[in-house]
Amino acid sequence: MNSRAIAAEVFGTFMLMASVLGAAFYSFGAPAGAAGILGVALSIGTTVMVMAYAVGQISGGHFNPAVTLGLVAGGRFEASKAVPYIIAQVVGALAACGVFSLVGHTGATFAANGYGELSMLKASLGEVFILETVLTAFFLIVIMGVTRANGPALLAPVAIGLTLTAIHLMAIPISNASVNPARSLGSAIYAGGEALSQVWVFWAAPILGGVIGGVVGRWLLED
């Protein structure tokens, strides 16, 4: 396993998690006015875009266990490399959570994903599971499409970042927008309680969606 690829996944996921937490914790209560859901969505979308440009050539720029497993299902990534990538992604997410726990002003739920009382719209488990599965599948199909051999390589990170922005605009009111098991685990561990008891949903649904998206993307794009 390439140690630089692992380091790139740690760093990229750290920045992804930091973009979620920083926007979620601080932009809503800023004295100059809240950035709100749009601000959070743009924060994570632009961060993933620039990280894909910065280190994507080293590791592929997954930063997400659902993306890694979706690319395995789509025939774009070796299954033997998946576990080290996922461990690196979890480490990056937890490290970012650690930094923000030291900064403070984090809120009781630590921007955790969830349903019921942890959902802005009090969405049910079923509603959250469906949305997280569908949106992650959508995300993987976009990734498969823009990173294909004859695809728009230079603009691929832009398309991926904008897609993630759109996903967050749709999903924040329902599930606080996961589509990324590492991101969900980091928040859940630091929040504890109900968030931690619900975190399985944000592993199961995004991974299921990622695998579906990888398989569908492979079928759509095959020659």
TrEMBL record:
<feature type="transmembrane region" description="Helical">
    <location>
        <begin position="85"/>
        <end position="108"/>
    </location>
</feature>
<feature type="transmembrane region" description="Helical">
    <location>
        <begin position="153"/>
        <end position="174"/>
    </location>
</feature>
<feature type="transmembrane region" description="Helical">
    <location>
        <begin position="7"/>
        <end position="28"/>
    </location>
</feature>
<dbReference type="GO" id="GO:0005886">
    <property type="term" value="C:plasma membrane"/>
</dbReference>
<dbReference type="Pfam" id="PF00230">
    <property type="entry name" value="MIP"/>
</dbReference>
<comment type="similarity">
    <text>Belongs to the MIP/aquaporin (TC 1.A.8) family.</text>
</comment>
<feature type="transmembrane region" description="Helical">
    <location>
        <begin position="128"/>
        <end position="146"/>
    </location>
</feature>
<dbReference type="InterPro" id="IPR034294">
    <property type="entry name" value="Aquaporin_transptr"/>
</dbReference>
<dbReference type="InterPro" id="IPR022357">
    <property type="entry name" value="MIP_CS"/>
</dbReference>
<keyword id="KW-1003">Cell membrane</keyword>
<dbReference type="InterPro" id="IPR023271">
    <property type="entry name" value="Aquaporin-like"/>
</dbReference>
<dbReference type="InterPro" id="IPR000425">
    <property type="entry name" value="MIP"/>
</dbReference>
<feature type="transmembrane region" description="Helical">
    <location>
        <begin position="200"/>
        <end position="221"/>
    </location>
</feature>
<keyword id="KW-0812">Transmembrane</keyword>
<keyword id="KW-1133">Transmembrane helix</keyword>
<keyword id="KW-0472">Membrane</keyword>
<protein>
    <submittedName>
        <fullName>Major intrinsic protein</fullName>
    </submittedName>
</protein>
<keyword id="KW-0813">Transport</keyword>
<dbReference type="GO" id="GO:0015250">
    <property type="term" value="F:water channel activity"/>
</dbReference>
<feature type="transmembrane region" description="Helical">
    <location>
        <begin position="34"/>
        <end position="55"/>
    </location>
</feature>
